[in-house]
Amino acid sequence: MSGFGYRNVVVETDSLGLSGMIHGEEEIWLILQPIIHDKIHMLKANLGFNVLYSVTPLWLKDVVEADMPMETL
Question: Which superkingdom (predicted)?
Answer without folding.
Answer: Eukaryota
